[in-house]
Design brief:
The chain has 280 residues and is an alpha+beta fold. Helix content is 46%, strand content 22%.
Length: 280
């Protein structure tokens, strides 16, 4: 009987202890979100032999804390007085090397000549800086921008290509029509591949046909790929639109030819009366 009473009392004590534990844990879990500021609650186990302890830890992150990208290339321009290196290799505004010097001496030269210091090669040992005028920096920035623009344009992919194919015995009217079509494509800056097949029982020179086409569109076009035989009886070439630089050079050449031909014509006019006088 006594044993039963003791067992009953032990069960009641165990129940009260369980209720107290549940209420305590509930209070802690209810207060934890309010106390949490930035991090999530997690179990921290400092020692495997000890029970887990409820606490807060900082989240793990591999991102670079600073906003600057270390691989980002600085823009071309004046560095002002922000020089992290003690010894520099300095080039003057005329492109002449002044040798290695202390940064204080380089800054002194910059102030004396009212110039700006520009970083050219940071990877060199020591780093290379150049003294430049504001105009020189501006011109160099424009040059680099044009180069970058041209590189981006070249990297867009292959130029659109148009193709024409016909026989070497093509009629004159048909050749003129095809040449007009080529001129329209060249005007749109397409690459035009022209293929000529040697007709049977025809002695026509396929390369002569290419020359006739190029002569007609010579104001804007030139060979991207010169005429060549790709297989027996078949020749091909690729025409392209000339660049602005090529167009200016061609216009300059034509102007020179015109100027050189004018004195010859005037000389012939002056010599004509003399020959007539001799006949009299």
């Amino acid at each position: 009987m006594t044993a039963l009473c003791l067992l009953k009392l032990l069960r009641q004590a165990t129940r009260k202890e369980n209720r107290f534990t549940r209420s305590l844990c509930g209070a802690i879990l209810a207060e934890t979100p309010q106390r949490r500021i930035l991090s999530e609650p997690s179990l921290v186990v400092p020692d495997s032999t000890k029970p887990p302890v409820l606490g807060a830890t900082n989240p793990f992150c591999t991102a670079v804390k600073s906003g600057a990208d270390p691989k980002r290339k600085a823009a071309f321009g004046s560095v002002g007085r922000r020089i992290p290196y003690r010894i520099l290799h300095v080039i003057n505004e005329n492109g002449e090397s002044l040798g290695n010097m202390h940064r204080a001496e380089a800054l002194k030269l910059m102030d004396q000549h009212n110039l700006k210091l520009v970083l050219l090669r940071e990877s060199a040992e020591p780093p290379v800086y150049r003294l430049m005028t504001g105009k020189q920096i501006h011109e160099e920035q424009l040059r680099r921008a044009e180069k970058k623009k041209a590189s981006a344009k070249a990297g867009r992919g292959p130029q659109v290509r148009k193709e024409l194919s016909f026989s070497s015995s093509i009629a004159r009217n048909d050749l003129e029509t095809k040449t007009k079509q080529i001129a329209q494509w060249i005007e749109k800056k397409y690459h035009v591949k022209v293929t000529v097949r040697q007709a049977k029982d025809s002695a026509a020179d396929m390369f002569t046909v290419f020359d006739q086409i190029l002569k007609t569109v010579s104001e804007k076009a030139t060979y991207l790929s010169k005429p060549k035989v790709i297989k027996e009886g078949v020749s091909t070439c690729v025409l392209r639109h000339m660049s602005e630089k090529e167009l200016k050079a061609q216009q300059k050449l034509e102007k020179q030819k015109l100027e050189n031909s004018i004195p010859v014509a005037r000389k012939d006019e002056n010599e004509a009366p003399k020959s007539s006088e001799l006949n009299q």
